Amino acid sequence: MSLKLAYAIVGFDFDSTLSRLEGIDELGVRSGMGQQMAELTHSAMNGQVALESVYGQRLALIRPDTAAIAWLAERYIAESVPGVEALFEQLLAQNKTVHIISGGIRQAILPMARKLGLPDENVHAVELYFAPDGSYRGFDADSPLARSGGKADVCRTINPNGFDMVMVGDGQTDLESKQAGASFIGFGGVVNRLAVRQGADYFFEGDSLTPLMDLIH
Length: 217
Ligand SMILES: [Mg+2]
Description:
Helix content: 40-55%
CATH architecture: 3-Layer(aba) Sandwich
Number of helices: 10
Mean pLDDT: 92
Strand content: 15-25%
CATH topology: Rossmann fold
Order of helices and strands: EHHHHHEHEEEHEHEHEH
Shape: globular
Bound molecules: magnesium ion
Number of domains: 1
CATH class: Alpha Beta
Low-confidence stretches: none
């Protein structure tokens, strides 16, 4: 892969890519179930089990309410990966179409996405449902992002004309975007996974996203 890439559409994973956190793991720690959550997330991200088999299981254990989601939204911003703001500023100034494609909780991701200048419709993640008192009611089980292979489906949906697209992420589910014809850049600066490193068209580590400013043109 060339180090100078011309892409019209840039997709980003969110957890452990734009923010250092795994949101559902954070909610697990907050609710005293950190170890269980981390083990379930880890097995899905390494491709050992299908995402859909752990997605609802994790949320059913935590039952995050609106206060928990507001807390997570702040934590995401506080733990954003260095360089993300300048990177987004550059990509948007270059008139790239930028999307966040995440298996995380959409309401928790939106505040940071707005801060980065993305319109809400470019944030693809899983909606939670709440009761009027703010308690957890469930999640959008029909979302493709709550199952394995879903990121490839979203890539096809947002890019029906097959423009050159690149996806950036840390997980096995991000790698699946290649099935939709996207190039894939692996980021190992938060979590470094061998399978992702091996499957990526390009892979980088380090504590910031700044190298992408030279990679994506
Ligand atoms: Mg991730």
